[in-house]
Amino acid sequence: MEPNADSPAQDRRAFLTKASAVVIGGSLVVAPVVAGLCVVLDPLRRKSEAGASVLVATLNSLPEDGEPRKFSVLATRVDAWNRTPNVPIGAVYLQRLKDNKVRALNVVCPHAGCFVDYRSANNNDFGPCHNSSFALDGKVQDPKSPSPRGLDELPVEIRNGSEVWVTFQNFRAGVHEKIPV
Ligand code: FES
């Protein structure tokens, strides 16, 4: 009598052999694809550092009478696959207020994006690129100002008693609302 070529044991062995081949072959294909996707999508996985809190100055570097001081804001720039520390991302005027509070104003004019200048004790304001001028609290002084809003105030936090941390952000110029860019 001839052996039965389609016995259940042989069927099971053939099935297991094929299943193993599929699993091993599949893992050999999937692993490099997943690794490749991780590399391609890496910049998307990284959290943008825009809007992060940055150490800008210390309290004792600010005049107690509230006169504004200008500081560069340095941060880590994440550009596709590169991380570059201590890159200038903007600048702020800091003013020391009562009770060790600090006001931070972005130096960029909301009209068309020039840098405003503090115009010392004579004017005691932030000077114009065109015809805008801003009070020390950042508000628009002239009702005919071309700037649609005052200077952009930024959140400040005092840490460890004297460190001035600013949550730096730029905003869209030419519009009334503060729209982060
Ligand atoms: S850019 Fe400031 S007034 Fe025009």
Describe the model.
The chain is of the alpha+beta class. The protein has 2 domains: 7-45; 53-167, Rieske Iron-sulfur Protein, CATH 2.102.10.10. Helices cover 23% and strands 29% of the residues. It has 2 helices and 9 strands. The chain has helices at residues 8-45, 120-123; strands at 53-58, 69-79, 82-96, 102-106, 117-118, 126-127, 153-154, 156-159, 163-167. The chain has a 4-stranded antiparallel beta sheet with strand order 2-3-4-7, with no helix packed on it. The longest helix has 38 residues, at 8-45. The chain is elongated. Residues 42-48 have low confidence and may be disordered. It binds FE2/S2 (inorganic) cluster (FES). The site of FE2/S2 (inorganic) cluster has 10 residues, from loops.
The main pleated sheet reads as:
4 strands, antiparallel
Number of strands: 9
Residues in β-strands, percent: 25-35%
- Count of discrete structural domains: 2
CATH class of the largest domain: Mainly Beta
What would CATH call the homologous superfamily of the largest domain?
Rieske [2Fe-2S] iron-sulphur domain
